[in-house]
Amino acid sequence: MNKDRVPLLLDTAKWYKDLMDSNNKAFLPLFFDQHRYLVLKGGGGSGKSIFAGRKVLERVTTEPGHRWLVVRRVATTIRESCFAQLIGQIAQYYPECGAKVNKSDQTISFPNGSKILTFGLDDREKLKSIYDITGIWIEEASELEEADFNQLDIRLRTEFPHYLQIILSFNPISITHWLKRRFFDQKNPRALVHESTYKDNRFLTEEAIKTLEGFRDTDPYYYMVYCLGQWGVTGKTVFNAKALSARLQVLKPPKRRGLFEYDLDKDGIHVSNQRWADDEAGPIKVYREPEPGRPYVIGGDTAGDGSDWFVAQVLDNVTGEQVCTLRHRYDEDTFARQIYCLGLYYNRAKIGLETNFSTYPTKLLDLMGYRALYVREVEDDFNGKIRQTYGFRTDGLTRPVILSELIRVLRDHPDLLNDEDTILEMLTFVRNEKMRPEAEPGAHDDCVLALAIAHYIRPQHTMQIQTLEGEGTARWSEDMWEDYNRASPEMRERMIALWGKPKR
Q1: Distance between CA 299 and CA 276 in Å, rounded?
Q2: What is residue 224's predicted lDDT score, i.e. its pLDDT?
Q3: Given pLDDT bands bounded at 50, 70 and 90, which one contains residue 483?
Q4: Distance spanning both ends of the chain, measured CA to CA
Q5: What phi and psi, each to the nearest 5 degrees, are found at residue 8?
Q6: d(CA 479, CA 473)
Q7: What are the φ/ψ torsions at residue 146 (nearest 5 degrees)?
Q8: CA nearest to 448, candidates 413, 411, 402
Q9: Residue 52: Cβ within 10 Å count
Q10: What is the pLDDT of residue 396?
Q11: pLDDT at 452
């Protein structure tokens, strides 16, 4: 609404004073905002919906010819929410505007030719008949699919002497929601984003404030999401959501980002001349550089059906800290070669890749001569004997085990996490109706499972720092290193004399 367009018989000063007296200060500038999208994210009791209704009424009563559409996901929810609110606001603030309410059609008409229409997106056929829309208020916009929003957006294209605007009001629910990606993760020059909480609403009663603040002690996560309006999840989180959210706030950017380049040998298998290449959009993020003599492990989750990510998690095997991540949509051979280079980079790290959908990456690593591969025991179907094979198998028995171990490790040590993508996945890793832990609809679990595998395989690799000074020429096996790390100082000297100084 333009400042110079004020209700008849009221001068600007009186009009603005009335507006100030009957609205929250945090929302006053928004009455004059003309962005295409006015995005109102807020906690419960923040007053965002009250403001949205008020702005709609200010515009339809002072700008003739509006056809303003008010929508929610389901039509039956509008009558007792938006429609009832608008009728109440008209009676309280615009009693002389001459509005005519049609309760059967849930429309409101005004003498200046403006009209408010309310619809639910579950009645799509009826919605197709709507034309010449000049403004849209979407209440509980988080209930909509992005495709629904896009359909509404293209309908707001009529010729009109005043600006066209879509107001979206909602409580943040899922950290993976399209609203967050579209309006918050990247700046949209056509949108104004506004955030509010119950603390911005001076009209809340003391009783209502006490109720909201009571959740701070009884349910801190609910308080954080519902009352303070922070992004959350739709289900019961498997991991400590409060601790993970706090960790997100203090994360530092990776020390470097990029990928490995290499020369592919003529046999099409082996690589040589591996080197690091910086790339701001690269799939590998390094949070801690490898230290000489320090052991590392790598857990990997391979893309199952082509829709998921290839992910690898690198852990410091002494502390369990996440020091590097790889996340990309690769071909299997490219993924395997990046893992190969990453393993060498981190002191020939122990590597365990999931082999549920394909054993190819693990087999390629073996063909390339990478010997520090995770080994699991498998019962032979033919004779019942136990045999050993490379790679990690995620199934009904191992999945609960690796997830339980990950929950245990991170319960008291969320500081071991350094990667934002991983933490965001963990926040959307929830328990379904059957209490099975899984990614909520629309989210991924690749980072979570790769991290769980990495923690699970840690005991199969040394957790001791190899403190030999200098570098020799002898090649030591993993068993030799394990014996050396457990030996006394005197015995270590004898081992070096017997085996020779190792090449690392």
Answers
A1: 21
A2: 79
A3: confident
A4: 71
A5: -60, 150
A6: 18
A7: -60, -35
A8: 402
A9: 24
A10: 85
A11: 96
Q: Based on the domain organization, do 182 and 289 belong to the same domain?
A: no
Q: Is residue 216 part of a domain?
A: yes
Residue 402 and residue 477 share a domain: no
Task: Pull the structure tokens for residue 25.
Answer: 């200060």
Residue 48, domain CATH: 3.40.50.300
| Domain count across the chain | 3
95 exposed, middle or buried (CB, 10 Å; 0-12, 13-18, 19+)? exposed
Range of the domain at 175: 12-231
Angle value at C-alpha 114, between 111 and 120, nearest 5 degrees:
130
Q: Is the pLDDT of residue 202 over 90?
A: yes
User: What DSSP letter does each residue of 430-477 carry, written as one string?
Assistant: EE-TT--EEEPTT---HHHHHHHHHHHTGGGS--S-----S--SBPPP
Sign of the torsion formed by the C-alpha atoms of 51, 52, 56 and 57: negative
pLDDT for res 185? 85
Q: How would residue 3 be classed by pLDDT, with cut points 50, 70 and 90?
A: very low
Q: How high is the pLDDT of residue 7?
A: 47
Q: Is residue 493 part of a domain?
A: yes
Model pLDDT, residue 370: 93
Please give the pLDDT value at position 8: 46
HSE-up of residue 138 (Cα within 13 Å, Cβ side): 27
DSSP for 374-436 reads -EEEEE-TTT--EEEEESB---TTHHHHHHHHHHHHHHS-GGG---HHHHHHHHTEEE-TT--
| Sign of the dihedral through C-alpha 373, 376, 382, 384 | positive
For the chain, give the number of residues.
Answer: 504
Q: Which residue has the tokens 């009335």?
A: 18
Q: Is the pLDDT at 6 greater than 50, yes or no?
A: no
What is the domain-level CATH number for residue 323?
Answer: 3.30.420.240
419 Cα distance to chain centroid: 12
Cα gap 194→120, rounded to integer Å: 25
**Which residue type sits at 133?**
I
Looking at the predicted structure, is the pLDDT value of residue 17 above 90?
no
Average predicted confidence (pLDDT) for the chain: 87
Q: End of a domain among 215, 231, 247?
A: 231
H or E segment and range at residue 285: strand 284-286
Which residue in 210, 231, 69 sits closest to 135, CA to CA? 69
> pLDDT tens digit string along 223-282?
878 888 888 765 678 898 878 888 888 999 999 999 999 999 999 999 999 999 999 999
Backbone φ and ψ for 19, nearest 5 degrees, come out as: -65, -40
Are 183 and 87 within one domain?
yes
Query: In terms of domains, do 221 and 291 share one?
Result: no
Q: In this structure, are 422 and 504 located in the same domain?
A: no
Tell which wins on pLDDT, 12 or 246: 246
With residue 360 as reference, give the H or E element that holds it.
helix 360-367
Q: How far is CA 424 from the centre of its chain?
A: 4
Q: Helix or strand or coil: residue 141?
A: helix
